[in-house]
Amino acid sequence: MEHTLVPKQETTASDFLKLYPQYDGRNVIVAIFDTGVDPGAPGLQWTPDGRPKIIDVVDATVCHPFRLPVMLTRLHMHRAQISIGDVDMTTVLKAKDGKLKISPKTTWTLNPDWNAVNDSFRVGYKRGYEFYPQPLVARLKEAHKAEWVKSQRPFINATQRALAEWTRSHDPKTLCLADIDARNELLARLAVLEDSVKTFDDPGPVYDCVAFFDGSYWRAAVDATGTGDFSTANAMANFCVAQEFAKLSDESQLNYALNVYDNGDVLSIVCDAGSHGTHVAGIVAAYHAEDPVNNGVAPGAQIVSVKIGDSRLGATETGVGICRGILAVLQHKCDVVNMSFGEHAARPNYGRPIEMIQELVEKHGVMFVASVGNDGPALGSIKSPGG
């Protein structure tokens, strides 16, 4: 008996694979249009024949519209429209003695193993909370505020004790100006401390970023330590080159990958906007060699993660994001698109994204599978884009 949340028996997927084990998704590439897929998730590392499970991770999010091309063949991978994880890397600096002079008071130390053409490096920075998933931001802010409150509590307690001691030891009828000033100082100190607790706002980390061309590939690194020390940092190529990813911190547990666009002008930090995309990818194609009961329905398939869920919009997709995602489908010659995403629409099956999806299916032979919703209001109510 299978005890997983994937109903492979009820849908007869298990029986199908037993009859036709070669039809396990091998040689099929599935694009997951969703919140993004965690590149470090168990079961999403390798296919049964040893190929990388996730071929590429792409951030297609964008919050503002731009002119959409008439035909898919006119789409180009440019980043003029800022995605949530994009970093401006147009600043170019020359390295000297393995260091970059960022400002009169700031110097970055580079990894001596990095071989940049002409010692030329691109630099930029990115606020973490701009691309973190909203639930993660909320969790970190809550934890950091709790730490701040805990750190301020001894000072608040000490001030309150001092104020109580002042009140106990002074007769209001015999106060001098110095006594009043001392009391006012304690009251002001207590007010500032209590206000610092009430108004505490965690701005989050700021990540320094560096990118360079090594003669073959663009590579980039993110300083997760906040020290400007890249001496031991790993410069990762675009994810599709070597499927490299890293974790920003133990506290965040947020995995990320990097893509460089526009000849180094833009660095894309790609992380998921929520767990939904990873969940969907697991249903589709997870492969657990030691625990096959947890496999997806097509464990031999490979995945292209296309992040259309924008953290700035509560992980909601935009039409522009869908259109940009279609480019990744064509670039990687995906066979299937799975979009378990959507919402109610005033005019279903209408608009430029729908036209581009139809063109993708009819002219390029890609199968597009979309959800139709499961939240009513009626038993048969459906949502866009599936209805």
UniProtKB/TrEMBL annotation:
Q: Does the keyword Protease apply?
A: yes
* Biological process according to GO: proteolysis
Q: Known catalysed reaction(s)?
A: Hydrolysis of proteins with broad specificity for peptide bonds, and a preference for a large uncharged residue in P1. Hydrolyzes peptide amides
Q: Mind telling me which residue stretches traverse the membrane in this protein?
A: none
User: What Pfam families does the database record attribute to this sequence?
Assistant: Peptidase_S8
UniProt-listed Enzyme Commission number(s)? 3.4.21.62
Top-level taxon? Eukaryota
| Signal peptide positions (record) | none
Query: Which key words tag this protein in UniProt?
Result: Hydrolase, Protease, Serine protease
| InterPro entries tied to this protein | Peptidase_S8/S53_dom, Peptidase_S8/S53_dom_sf, Peptidase_S8_His-AS, Peptidase_S8_subtilisin-like, Peptidase_S8_subtilisin-rel
Name the enzyme group at the top EC level: hydrolase
How is this protein annotated for GO cellular component? cytosol
Give this protein's Gene Ontology molecular function annotations: serine-type endopeptidase activity; tripeptidyl-peptidase activity
Peptidase S8/S53 domain: residues covered: 25-386
Q: Family membership, please give it.
A: Belongs to the peptidase S8 family.
Protein name (record): subtilisin
UniProt lineage: Eukaryota, Sar, Stramenopiles, Oomycota, Saprolegniomycetes
